[in-house]
Design a protein that fits this description.
Blueprint (H helix, E strand, L loop, with lengths): L1 H34 L2 E2 L9 E2 L3 H6 L3 H32 L6 H13 L2 H23 L12 H29 L3 H9 L4 H12 L1 H16 L3 H6 L11 H11 L3 H28 L5
Helix pairs in contact: 3-4, 3-6, 3-9, 4-6, 6-9, 9-12, 11-12
């Protein structure tokens, strides 16, 4: 009876979440799949024309979409490396015997608490106005100029902002993994004469592999889905050179009113992200060490 009562309580608490997730995610996703087979401008009174897989075939010749896909993959690769290296470095610092480690942990995590739109506008001011002023006052115009007007530097700026925002959050996950390592293991390594790098590479890295799995999954999915920072910082410019996957889909649906075609892009986007994240999780899961 007690077991049945516990199951009833679990269902009671889980049911609202299941209903919300079904209403907000599952049902719209299924409806979106249906729209991807139609040509429709989103107006309720206008007719939906069934065109089958034409929307998906059109993607193969859509230069803007393919360019956006390439930029998104490039951005994601660099951002994943930067975010995880910086997050892991922060975690190693704040789990050391540093006296101000608690203050440092709070300060490093704070950027994640700032909304993406606000963060983008703040850094937009830095990369445009502050950098331009520094270039004029110092004469170092090769570095200090408006990065957001240069297609290559604008993408670099986007990577920097995304890294600055997410590194603190990723740091917390790595901290959890590092603190879960038994002290006797690291102490035994020191007794055996292992140095800092040997302990890090041979002891800590294998034992925090579950943290790597989580952090890589979060950074891969979040970098592919980035929109708010992209909108506030560059709005896809200059000349659509920083228009990421999510922004391209949004513009297709809400700016150009191509609802069917936009939904086809969204479905392909979902499949690509799902495949990449599943491959990543399966690879890193195999490398996890059981304590």
């Amino acid at each position: 009876m007690k077991k049945k009562a516990n199951i009833a309580w679990y269902l009671l608490f889980v049911l609202p979440l299941v209903l919300i997730f079904t209403t907000v995610v599952i049902i719209p996703f299924i409806i979106g799949i249906g729209y991807s087979f139609f040509e429709w401008d989103g107006m309720r009174l206008n007719e939906k024309i069934f065109i089958g897989f034409d929307n998906f075939a059109k993607l193969l010749t859509d230069a803007n979409f393919l360019t956006s896909a390439g930029k998104t993959i490039l951005f994601t690769l660099f951002a994943i490396v930067a975010i995880n290296i910086l997050g892991l470095a922060f975690a190693l610092i704040v789990t050391s015997k540093l006296k101000v480690r608690n203050v440092a942990r709070t300060m490093l995590f704070m950027p994640y608490l700032i909304g993406g739109l606000i963060l983008g506008y703040v850094w937009k001011f830095i990369f445009s106005d502050v950098f331009s002023s520094l270039g004029e006052s110092t004469g170092i115009t090769g570095v200090f100029f408006n990065w957001l007007l240069n297609s290559k530097f604008a993408l670099v700026a986007l990577i920097i902002v995304a890294t600055w925002q997410m590194a603190g959050y990723i740091m917390i996950i790595y901290i959890t993994g590092i603190q879960g390592i038994p002290e006797e293991v690291t102490e035994a390594a020191k007794v055996d004469g292992a140095g800092f790098w040997q302990t890090l590479l041979k002891i800590k890295f294998p034992l925090i592999m579950p943290s790597f799995t989580i952090c890589l999954f979060l950074t891969v999915s979040n970098c592919f889905k980035i929109y708010d920072v992209n909108l506030a910082l560059t709005a896809g410019g200059p000349a659509r050179s920083t228009e990421m996957f999510a922004m391209n889909i949004y513009n297709e649906i809400f700016s150009l009113s191509n609802y069917g075609y936009g939904q086809a892009k969204a479905i392909v986007f979902f499949i690509v992200v799902a495949i990449i994240t599943l491959i990543q999780v399966s690879i890193t899961k195999k490398k996890e060490v059981v304590m």
